[in-house]
Amino acid sequence: MDFKKFTNALFVGEETSQKPNHYGEVRSFKLPNSSITIQYSTKYIKTSNDDLNTFLPDIIVKNSYLEYSKGIDPEFQEIINYSNDCTK
Question: Residue 50 and residue 46: Cα distance in Å, rounded?
């Protein structure tokens, strides 16, 4: 979110699966009798004044397994295409 706020960066890819504002700084402990590990958040991380459900890139590019399996990087291709369009 800082890059979005403080730079002119162009974001390419898929939307995030998590809200920009979220709980984090995870810690853990083990329950004494069962030895089950419990994880819990210790901090609310606020990166946006808006209550967004996701971070949307400027150019949305969906990935597919077929592209991945062929070694194709659709985001990189989109950046190349965008660069070529800007230089025309």
Answer: 9
